[in-house]
């Protein structure tokens, strides 16, 4: 009979941390979709939507990254998956911030760099959410 406690099991995210993390991915993905709409239609309002969605995502992501760093400082929460999660969240915030700076340019001047940075930030948000919520699985579940 295999022991379920032999493996290092990551603790689940705090419910508020999980709720904030769950809000980041949709905002960044919608910013990417707005950038795609702007790239195809050249309607300036889509670029504005992308900027607003990026700012909203970055506000939530700022709290998430602070929470992840504080969790990482606590020894009992320091696992490989939690370290990877924190690194991905930091990269997501950095690229999201660069994307927001790129979106601050006038209209078409943000393309294609803004679109590329939004795509990478959205992908990192999805990966961070996946890793963050995968800690909810316990012990012997396969």
TrEMBL record:
According to the lineage, what is the superkingdom? Bacteria
Q: Does the keyword Transmembrane helix apply?
A: yes
| Keyword hit for Transit peptide | no
- Name the Pfam families on file: DUF2231
DUF2231 domain spans which residues? 14-134
- Give the keywords, sorted: Membrane, Transmembrane, Transmembrane helix
Q: Known InterPro entries for this protein?
A: DUF2231_TM
Where do the TM regions start and end? 49-70, 82-101, 113-136
Protein name per Swiss-Prot or TrEMBL:
Membrane protein
Q: Which organism is it from?
A: Sandarakinorhabdus glacialis
Native organism taxonomy: Bacteria, Pseudomonadati, Pseudomonadota, Alphaproteobacteria, Sphingomonadales
């Amino acid at each position: 009979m295999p022991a379920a406690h032999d493996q290092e099991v990551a603790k689940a995210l705090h419910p508020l941390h999980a709720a904030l993390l769950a809000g980041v991915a949709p905002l960044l993905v919608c910013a990417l979709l707005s950038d795609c709409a702007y790239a195809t239609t050249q309607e300036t309002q889509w670029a504005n939507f992308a900027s607003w969605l990026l700012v909203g995502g970055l506000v939530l992501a700022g709290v998430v990254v602070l929470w992840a760093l504080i969790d990482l400082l606590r020894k009992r929460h320091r696992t490989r998956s939690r370290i990877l999660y924190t690194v991905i969240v930091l990269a997501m915030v950095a690229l999201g911030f660069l994307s927001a700076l790129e979106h601050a340019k006038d209209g078409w001047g943000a393309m294609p760099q803004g679109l590329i940075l939004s795509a990478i930030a959205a992908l990192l948000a999805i990966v961070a959410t996946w890793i963050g919520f995968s800690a909810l699985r316990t012990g012997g579940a396969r």
